[in-house]
Structures are given as C-alpha cells and as structure tokens.
Task: inverse folding
C-alpha cells in the first residue's frame, strides 16, 4: 500500500517551509511527496530545487507555467500521484501542518478499513489550538435548501465519525473511489472545488474522520470576511456544482440569493460581481476570470 501526499503552494514560502519540515520529520513518511508550485513569483522555485534533493523520501516538484489555482494544482498533483501508483492520496494547502504522527496513524487506519466502502479518511483540523468545525460537514438537503451543517464538537470526542463534506485540509482519498467519480474539477480555479468533489466521493463510499490525526491549519481568517475577488468564484462554482448535480431548485435559489446580496450591498461593483458569477455559470464559463484575478480589489 502506497500513500502520496500532494501540497499546492503559491507565494507563501515561509509557511511552506514549516509545512515541509513537518513532512520531513514524520514518524512514518508518505511514499511520495508531491509539491505543486503554482507559478510562485517569490523564491519558492529556488528553495524547492534544493529541498527536493534532501532526505530519503521520494520528492517530486511540479512547477506550473501559470497560476492555475488550487483546483488546477490539486488536479495536477493528484494525477501525478496516480501515475506513481499511489493507493491513497493526501491533499492539503501550504498552510496545513500535520502532527508528526499523522501518517503513521493514517497507515494504521487505512490497513483496518474496507477499501471498497470508504472513499476518504479525514484528519481533525485545528486553528489556534481549537477544533475548526467548518472543515468537516454533513449535507442536509431539503426540497428548497442545500445546507452544510458542521459536524458538532461533541463528535470529536469519539475515535472517529462520518461526514459528507470536507475541505482539502488533511484528507486522504482512496484511488478506487477516484477511479469511479473522477478527480477535483480543475476548472473551478479556487473555492468550492472541495465541496463538489467530496459530494461525489460521499456518493461512492463513506468519508471517515479520525480524531487522532491532527492538522494545524494556519488559515488567515481575513480571507473569509466581506466580499472579495474570491466571492466571485464561490458563487460561480456553487452554481456550477448545482448544475452538474442536477439540483435545479438549489441553482435558482442561489441566483436569487446572489442578486439580493448585491442589491442590499448598495454597491454597484458588488452587484456586478454577483451578476458576473451568475452569467459565467449560465454560460458554463470556468477557469480564472480576468476581471477577478487573485488580489483584485472589488470594493
């Protein structure tokens, strides 16, 4: 049984160094560690060239010619892991630091589950020492509403629990499941790609979270505040997701919510962002939008 880990990075060299140090010092290391450098413009490339030659773990660095977003980066990295013959594939960003025993426990858990029933296993995610509930959720769909309910804190007192949805923060995916449901949608660019992918995986098999596998997520909470260029991708990709899963009622309700948010913002640029997201989804336009490049100021 082989495990490959995939990390996607973009212009966060200092954080990346901490992450890779945690992988280098794992009690039991993954068989392969794949780092996708998403066309970083800092000194990431130079650092990775030297880092890849250190240690006994098999290290692969993939440098893209342009920033293809987290979605594209994870697609490229997962595709490479499959080519290398990995049975289980770990995914995380360059701000997720696994405890040093995570992979030792991962091998143990994977060897004690039925591979034909489990599509993925998850870690417990913590931010600033506290459980980050938003990373593992249960899908509760009614006729009129699509809702992700965070797995409650009490569940983390158990050895393990099941969920329907995960973020790409410390997850191991079963290649058997990926062969059936496919890889992440590479054209989402960023945001909601993991929601859509875990939806497909949950329909193939169980997603089991183990609370003895812990990841420290050094996330910047400011990324999730207010309206930014990322909001465009969140709404566009939600709409694309509902279209692909044939949930028309959710699709049209999301459009109504987007328009109302734009109107109530009383800011023309914000309303235009939501309208652009709706139009892109209707036209099935994916990838990066030149109007909403990373770092673009919306308001």
Result:
């Amino acid at each position: 049984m082989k495990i490959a880990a995939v990390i996607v990075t973009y212009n966060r060299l200092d954080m990346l160094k901490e992450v890779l140090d945690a992988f280098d010092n794992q009690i039991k290391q993954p068989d392969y560690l794949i780092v996708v450098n998403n066309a970083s413009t800092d000194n990431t490339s130079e650092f990775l060239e030297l880092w890849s030659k250190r240690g006994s773990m098999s290290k692969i660095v993939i440098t893209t010619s342009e920033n293809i977003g987290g979605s594209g980066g994870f697609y490229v990295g997962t595709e490479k892991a499959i080519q290398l013959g990995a049975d289980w594939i770990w995914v995380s960003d360059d701000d997720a630091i696994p405890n040093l025993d995570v992979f030792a426990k991962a091998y143990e858990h994977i060897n004690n589950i039925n591979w034909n029933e489990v599509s993925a296993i998850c870690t417990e995610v913590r931010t600033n020492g506290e459980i980050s509930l938003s990373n593992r959720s249960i899908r509760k769909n009614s006729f009129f509403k699509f809702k992700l309910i965070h797995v409650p804190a009490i569940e983390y007192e158990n050895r393990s629990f099941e969920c329907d949805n995960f973020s790409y923060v410390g997850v191991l995916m079963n290649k058997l499941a990926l062969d059936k449901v496919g890889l992440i949608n590479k054209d989402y660019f960023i945001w909601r790609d993991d929601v859509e992918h875990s939806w497909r995986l949950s329909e193939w098999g169980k997603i089991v979270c183990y609370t003895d596998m812990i990841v420290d997520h050094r996330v910047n909470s400011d990324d999730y505040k207010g309206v930014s260029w990322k909001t465009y991708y969140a709404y566009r990709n939600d709409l694309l997701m509902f279209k692909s899963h044939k949930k028309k009622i959710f699709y049209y309700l999301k459009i109504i919510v987007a328009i109302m948010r734009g109107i109530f913002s009383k800011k023309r640029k914000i309303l235009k962002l939501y309208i652009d997201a709706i139009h892109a989804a209707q036209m099935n336009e994916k990838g990066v939008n030149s109007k909403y490049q990373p770092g673009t100021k919306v308001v």
